[in-house]
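Hi V.,

You were right to ask for the full record rather than a summary. Here it is.
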Amino acid sequence: MNAEDPSKTLRFRFFRLPVLVSLVAVLALPLLQGSAAAAEAIRIGEINSQHRLSTAGQAYRNGLLLALEQINGSGGVAGRPLQLVTRDDAGDPAQAGRNARELVEREHVQVLTGTMLSDVALAVAREAGRGKTVLVVGDALSDAITLDKGNRYTFRVRPSTYMQAAMLAEQASRMPGRRWAVVAPNYEYGQSAVASFKMLLKAARPDVEFVADQWPALGKIKGDDVARAIRQSRPDGIFNATFGEDLQKFVQAGNRQQLFKGVQVVSMASAGAQSLDPSQSEAIRDWVAIGYPWDQITTPEHQRFLDAYLKRFGERPQLASVFGYTAMMAIGSGLKKSDGVDGDALVEALRGLHLASPLGPVSFRALDQQASLGAFVGRVSQKDGRSSMHDWHYLDGAAYLPPVDYVRGRRPASAMK
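Predicted structure:
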C-alpha cells in the first residue's frame, strides 16, 4: 500500500481554499444586502423659515429632533432609522416650492414637514400634491391648507385659524362691548384669522360691529400708525393676529398712545417669546390670548416631554417645540402603521390616526386631515420683559373643528378621496 504524496495533498488544499472563500462570499451576499436594506434610513424633509423666524423655527426643529431621536432609540420604523434632511425657505413661497421639489426628486425624502408661514405651507402643499408625497404641516395656521387649497397628501397638526378663532370668538362673545377693531398681517394667515373671527363672533353676537381693520405687511408694521388708526375708531375690543416683532412694535406703540386702556384684547399670540423694552414692561395686561404655560402644566405626558426637552437642549420649550415634536411623532406613527411605505399607503395610515402628544391624545380627522390638538387660552400679562399666563384652561381641539358641512363646502372633492 503506497503512502499519499504530502505535496499533492497540500496543493489540493490550497487550490480549494480560494474557491471555498468565494463560495461563502457569494452565499453571504444576499444576507449582507438584506441587512443593509433593512437599515436604510427613511428620509424626512423639513422646510422651515430659519431666516425670518429663527427663534420659533429652531424651537420647532428641536421638537422634531427630540421625537426623531426617541423614535430611533426605540428601533425606528421596521428597523429603519429616520433621518432629517433640512432646507431653509427664507420665508419665500417660491423658494419653499423649489426646496420641496428638490427634496422629493433629488433627496428622495418620503415625507415633508415644517412650513411655519402659511403662504410657504401652501406652496409646499402644492408640490406635495403633485409629487404624491405626504406633507405634515406642524405650525402654519391658514384654513386654506386643509380647506380651499387642501389636497389628499397634506395633513396639519396645529389648531387651524378657524379653530383658534372659534376659541377666541367664544371668549369675546362673553365680553360686554360690541365695537371691535382688528389688526392682522396682510397675508394668508392674517386674512384667514380675521375672516374666521368675524364670522364666528357675528354668529354668536349679531349685535357686534367691526369699526376698524388694520393690515400691516408682515415684518413691516408701522406701530404708531396702526395704533392711532385703531384708537380713532374708539373700539370696545381688539382682535390681534400679529406676532413676533410686529406684535412687539404694536404693543409698544399702543402702550405709548394708551390704546389698551379700558379696551379688551383677544389675541392669537401671547408675545411669550418676546422681551419688551423695560419702559414698556407692563404693556400687555390681562389680554385673553392663546399661549403656552409650560411651567404650570402638570400632566404626566407634558412632564415627560418637558424633562426630555430640558435635558436634550438645556432650554425651555416653546409652543413651536410641541408642534414639531407632535408632527414627527405623527409621521413615525403613520410610517409604522403603513410598514414604512410612503405615498397613498401613508395617507390612509394617517387618516383617523390616534397618537399621544405632550398635550394629550390627538387624532387626525379623515375628512379634512386636521389634527384635534387643542390650545391653552387664558389671561396674559407682560412684566419686566416677561409674559405670564393665568386663569388659563386647555381647550380640546376636537370641540372646535370646523363643522362637517362647512368643510365639505370648502374642501375640494379630490382631497377627500
